[in-house]
Amino acid sequence: MPYIGQPVSWTPCAYSNLGGEENLKSTRDRGKVSGKIVWINELHHFFLVEAQVFGYTMRECFKF
Q1: 41 φ, ψ to 5°?
Q2: Are 60 and 12 in contact (CB under 8 A)?
Q3: Which has the closest alpha carbon to 54: 33, 39, 38?
Q4: For a FRET experiment, which of 5, 45, 50, 56 has its CA 20 to 30 Å from that of 33?
Q5: Which parts of the chain register pLDDT below 70?
């Protein structure tokens, strides 16, 4: 079970095509980003992860 503050590393969907392959036209670093869980919705079984990327806050949700 995930918990708030848990560290998470993932490849943002912004770095991928819809098919899950890497976007070869992207000029960004295509590596994983590291962040932490900031919110959990237990009723709908997903959590929100937040990371700082290039000075901006990036957020993405994941199902569990």
Answers
A1: -110, 95
A2: yes
A3: 33
A4: 45
A5: 15-30
Nearest to residue 51, comparing CAs of 63, 62, 41, 64? 62
With 0.90 as the threshold, say if the pTM is over it.
no
Strand order of the β-sheet with 56-63 is 7-10, 33-41, 46-53, 56-63
Residue whose token pair is 């295509």: 30
Please spell the DSSP secondary structure of 1-64, one letter per residue: ---TT-EEEE--GGGB-TTSSB-TT--S--S-EEEEEEEEETTTTEEEEEEEETTEEEEEEEE-
